[in-house]
């Protein structure tokens, strides 16, 4: 069920969430990108991705013993669950992470470049980081707390989208021209699907139907609710009106921020994390758009990147059993204090962010040497639906 829910987050959740946020002339292109990434990442996960992330290797890179799922048989086990189930559950995480990144360069990147970039990024960024954190690598051995992907999913996707936005450049007309979402009803529906799907994302990461999974689901919902409300009321106070876009973005911020802490924080801690997520990510969005004027088109870095960083650090605080009503489930084995766990969390955040930034930049340059990253100006004005695919989302 959790595996199906995480795939549901990409198809149709992210399709509708991102699809509603772009302009009419690009709705099919962003939708197809999500579908195509699902297909190509699934194949690459079978061929090599799973092996690099989860087979025996060294501290930084998994081995090649599970290429093409070698040895993943009907009766083979990963802990207490079938390895086939573990492999496809992790596949859905590998799918949604590069799909999140496309929000950073929406409406201006060539389809062929997106497919090549996503493929290389999976192999050289996502899979090694997944090995570091979950596959027996150096961060896991160090005691990093990342229950469901604060570093592996949200920091990598957020940082990669920021680097891509800077390398590819702003959309034509940004920020002087209005680039409002074309269909907020679609976006709100997609956001609701993400909220529901996140129960599988975080609850399923317990890899069991037990109290740990149930607590992860509970704190996930609390943080999403708190993130939505803190963003909504802050926006209401600042601009005089609460918006649907702001409320659902706050919800996503709450979900992304609780993700690394979902197996370690308690309900009151989740409430605090959600409130903090809404406030921080709101100001990050405002700062990037209005001050830095960086065209991270669908706010991937200020929501997922900042959320992942914040949540990974806060996991080191709210995992503590000595915070009264805000207590969590305890630190990593061998860690005895908030300061000790925070140090580990900080190392995880910095190392994953730096590696992702450097590797993403190198991959973008390599892709650009093969095929131009960006569509021509006339093509961008026409829209990627007609230019890239000969179709239209709406026949008027």
Overview of the structural elements:
With 396 residues, the protein is mainly α. Helices cover 68% and strands 1% of the residues. It has helices at residues 2-21, 27-54, 83-101, 111-134, 138-142, 150-168, 184-203, 211-239, 244-258, 267-292, 300-318, 338-370, 377-382, 384-389; strands at residues 77-78, 81-82. Strands 1-2 form a two-stranded antiparallel sheet. It starts with a helix and ends in a 7-residue tail after the last helix. The mean pLDDT is 97.
Secondary structure topology:
Blueprint: H1 2-21, H2 27-54, E1 77-78, E2 81-82, H3 83-101, H4 111-134, H5 138-142, H6 150-168, H7 184-203, H8 211-239, H9 244-258, H10 267-292, H11 300-318, H12 338-370, H13 377-382, H14 384-389
Antiparallel strand pairs: 1-2
Helix pairs in contact: 1-2, 1-3, 1-7, 2-3, 2-4, 3-4, 3-6, 4-6, 4-12, 6-11, 6-12, 7-8, 7-9, 8-9, 8-10, 9-10, 9-11, 10-11, 11-12
Q: Helical amount among residues, as a percent range?
A: 55-70%
Give the termini distance in whole angstroms.
Answer: 39 Å
* Individual helix count: 14
Mean pLDDT: 97
- CATH class descriptor name: Mainly Alpha
Helix-strand category: mainly alpha
């Amino acid at each position: 069920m959790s595996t199906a829910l995480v795939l549901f987050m990409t198809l149709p959740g992210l399709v509708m969430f991102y699809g509603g946020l772009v302009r009419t002339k690009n709705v099919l292109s962003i939708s197809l990108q999500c579908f195509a990434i699902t297909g190509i990442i699934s194949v690459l996960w079978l061929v090599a991705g799973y092996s690099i992330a989860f087979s025996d290797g060294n501290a930084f890179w998994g081995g090649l013993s599970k290429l093409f799922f070698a040895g993943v048989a009907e009766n083979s086990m990963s802990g207490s669950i079938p390895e086939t189930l573990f492999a496809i559950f992790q596949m859905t995480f590998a799918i949604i992470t590069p799909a999140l990144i496309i929000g950073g360069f929406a409406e201006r990147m060539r389809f062929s470049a997106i497919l090549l970039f996503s493929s290389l990024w999976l192999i050289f960024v996502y899979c090694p980081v997944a090995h570091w954190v979950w596959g027996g690598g150096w961060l896991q051995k160090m005691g990093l707390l990342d229950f469901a992907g604060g570093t592996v999913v949200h920091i990598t996707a957020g940082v990669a989208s920021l680097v891509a936005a800077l390398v590819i450049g702003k959309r034509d007309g940004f920020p002087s021209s209005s680039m409002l979402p074309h269909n907020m009803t679609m976006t709100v529906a997609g956001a609701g699907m993400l909220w529901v799907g996140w129960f599988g994302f975080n609850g399923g990461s317990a890899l069991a139907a037990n109290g740990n999974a149930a607590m992860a689901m509970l704190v996930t919902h609390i943080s999403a609710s708190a993130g939505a409300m803190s963003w909504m009321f802050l926006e209401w106070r600042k601009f005089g009106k609460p918006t649907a876009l702001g409320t659902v973005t706050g919800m996503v911020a709450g979900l992304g921020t609780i993700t690394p802490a979902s197996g370690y924080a308690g309900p009151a801690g989740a409430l605090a994390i959600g409130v903090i997520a809404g406030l921080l990510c709101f100001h990050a969005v405002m700062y990037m758009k209005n001050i830095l004027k960086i065209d991270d088109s669908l706010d991937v870095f200020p929501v997922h990147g900042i959320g992942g960083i914040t949540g990974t650090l806060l996991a080191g605080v709210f995992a503590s059993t000595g915070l009264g009503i805000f207590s969590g489930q305890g630190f990593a084995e061998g860690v005895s204090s908030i300061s000790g766990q925070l140090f580990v969390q900080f190392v995880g955040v910095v190392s994953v962010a730096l590696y992702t930034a450097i590797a993403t930049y190198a991959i973008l340059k390599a892709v650009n040497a093969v095929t131009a990253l960006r569509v021509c100006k006339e093509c961008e004005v026409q829209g990627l639906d007609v230019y890239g695919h000969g179709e239209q989302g709406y026949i008027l």
